[in-house]
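[READ THE FOLD]
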Amino acid sequence: MEFVVVILLILNIWFILIVALATLVNRTFKAKNYERAILYSTILTFLNPINGKIFYGRGLTYQANGQLDLAIKDFVRAIKLRKGSFQSYYALLDILCVKHRVEKFAPFANEIVRFLPNQAESYNIRGVYYMLLEQYDDALADFEKSLMILPTEPRYISNQAWSLYKLGKVAVAKKIYDDLVKTNINFLHARQNLIIIAIEEKRLEDALTLADALLKIDNASSFYFQLRSRIYRKLERYTEAFTDIEFALRLQSDQAGHYLERGLIYTDMQNYDSAIADFTQSIALAPLESCPYVDRGAVYFVLDRIDEAHADAVKAYELEADSKYSISLLALTSFIRGEIDEAQRLWRDMVELDERYMDVAWTVEDLGWKDLLVAVTEKLIATL
């Protein structure tokens, strides 16, 4: 009897410790004291090493603290302990996307489908993985399987529409999004994608009308203000663009994309010192993203600070070697520095990557590499 009492007492103390530590983890995480939250989470993993939720939570903390490799290990551990936890799969996919290592998600994408073949979310996860790899045929097939199981889920419908859009079936995609907006008034992702499509098609006034309507529904999202700021910038309405991006930053000051957008506004206004400062801040917040390096490098190039432009181009290329923006800037700075063979190799890579530039390849002999690369770079920057 005494032995049972001792066991119950130990279990009670263990339970109290678990609850107390979990509370401390939540408090310190919300206070952004990530090192302390990691410490408490680690103690929890010793007390309860078979609880996948604990590893998932610590993974999120590692991610917030910028320790991405450790976060990946915890998300993988969480998946092994809780194969049915879709959250862990999405968290792992998200962080691999940030690190530009999406292809490493392949075994997990197939595993979730094998483990839960009757769950719509399993196919959606794998579809998102294919979509990030730009394998839109495979993505569409998986989203349609999700819809066969759960035909009214708006996320699956939206993903199906986006895949169709990327496959060139624009009218069909727009029709799906329009219907989705009508039947799911609170599903704002469909409205957001309609705006992005309008921007890509250069229907900027239409995009602005859609953005205005979106912000009337939800004026608490900093991303929506950033999105409208981008439209105003492309319309060269810089005062309004600046107002929106400033409001976005007041709502959420730790978003790299907001500083990137403001830096682009400053660039268009030829306020280059402020642009460099914002691109630098964007890099500090998202050091694995190539875009701010490209944009800062382009400004350095305009200012004839070629070595700094080249350093940013090299970094952007290291982060995303299949980006035409990274390739173009590196080719240009390499040429200016006299690295002709490297510039030519990179130019050929860019033409191979995007066949839209094949039509200017024959002009190499007529224009010379410098003029051609300048022309192409200007064309690329104009699409930003």
